[in-house]
Amino acid sequence: MSHPSELISAYLDGELHGGELKSLLDHLSGCGRCSAEMEDIQRVRAAVRSLPVLELPEGVVPEAESELVPLHRNRGVWFGAAAAVVALVIAVAALVTPPPDQISVDELTSRFGARATLDPAFNPAKVVVPVEVSE
Amino acid sequence: MESIPLTWEEVARVYGRKIYNFAYRLTGNPDDAHDLVQEVLLRVRRGLANYQPGSFEGWLWRITRNAFLDDVRRKKRRPTAPMPDEVDRWDLASADSADTEYDRISLGDDIQKALLELPIDFREAVVLCDVVGLSYEEIAAAVAVPIGTVRSRIHRGRKMLKDLLS
Questions:
Q1: Chain B residues within an 8 Å CB radius of A5
Q2: Deepest of A43, A68, B142, B144, by most Cβ within 10 A of its Cβ?
């Protein structure tokens, strides 16, 4: 004998219709096991439904749109703060660092020439000095 | 066509308490339920602009259960501290001073504990049916499973609860 156990909850929830409903009712009239199971399920169902309805605690629903933040609210804040600090450091460094001294081609040639004289290992051929070409 | 709340504030006003009860019964923890409600409202606010007319409740509860499952997955990857002792020690004796939230919650303590013992799929089905009050069709839409699966999960979930409570 097969027992249509899974139909019992659907029946109690008013979710059983037509042939399935008739079939279950016919079965219940002659099956003590399923009738007992239905009583057990009915008790459990009533117990869960009797759980107190909890009121929404204050503060759960934000008052203002700006207070709606995701669960990982801290992550974005810290990334933003770090980016702002880096940008500030770069801006300050750019303001306080003096521009490089201007150097003329003649002065550059003179410096390399002096080093070539004192340091035999120095290879001035590796240095490209821009030379003005007159037309 | 079903009329839908136009703003997330209206969703919060109309459905906030239901979402909180769903979240609390699934998590067993007021703080987690609090975070979950806020996460759901955030997703609702983002999603309302692209909402396609249809079953608003199906859409809302799909968002809610997805937010819950995402939270469960995140906690599996990064376990956090266990629930505080006082939450575990709610008992019926404290029901005399029924003014506080905890005392009211304690009335259903045994059932709540048993619910938390259920595998998530079964807990979710039972809570959506018996706490939120959705029909099998609405649960099927929210969970994206056939109605037959909903029927089976609810019944098996209740049978597990019966064993846990007896």
A1: 155
A2: B142
| Measured distance between the N- and C-terminal CA atoms of chain B, rounded to whole angstroms | 46
Q: How many residues does chain B have?
A: 166
Residue B84, pLDDT score: 41
Answer yes or no: is pLDDT of A42 > 50.
yes
The encoded tokens of residue B122 equal: 């079964």
ipTM: 0.78
| Per-position DSSP letters for B32-45, written without gaps between them | HHHHHHHHHHHHHH
Question: What is the DSSP secondary structure assignment for residue A121, as one 8-state letter?
Answer: T
State how far the alpha carbon of A84 is from the alpha carbons of A25, A76, A78, A80, B157, in Å.
71, 12, 10, 6, 52
Q: DSSP state, A127?
A: -
**B window 23-42, beta carbon within 8 A of A:** 24-25, 30, 34-35, 37-39, 41-42
Contact between B38 and A51 using a beta-carbon 8 Å cutoff: no
Single-letter residue type at B39: E
Q: Look at residues B112, B26, B154 and name the one whose alpha carbon lies nearest to residue A13.
A: B154
Q: For residue A96, what are the contacts with CB-CB under 8 A and spacing of at least 6?
A: none
DSSP state letters, chain B: -----SSHHHHHHHHHHHHHHHHHHHH--HHHHHHHHHHHHHHHHHHGGGPPSS-HHHHHHHHHHHHHHHHHHHHHHS--PPPPHHHHT--GGGGGSTTSHHHHHHTTHHHHHHHHHS-HHHHHHHHIIIII---HHHHHHHHTS-HHHHHHHHHHHHHHHHHHH-
Q: How far apart are alpha carbons B141 and B147 in whole angstroms?
A: 9
Return the amino acid letter for B113: K
- Report angle CA B30, B36, B38 to the nearest 5 degrees: 110
- Could you read off the pLDDT of A63-114 as tens digits, one per residue? 645 445 454 444 455 556 677 777 887 777 777 776 656 656 666 556 555 5
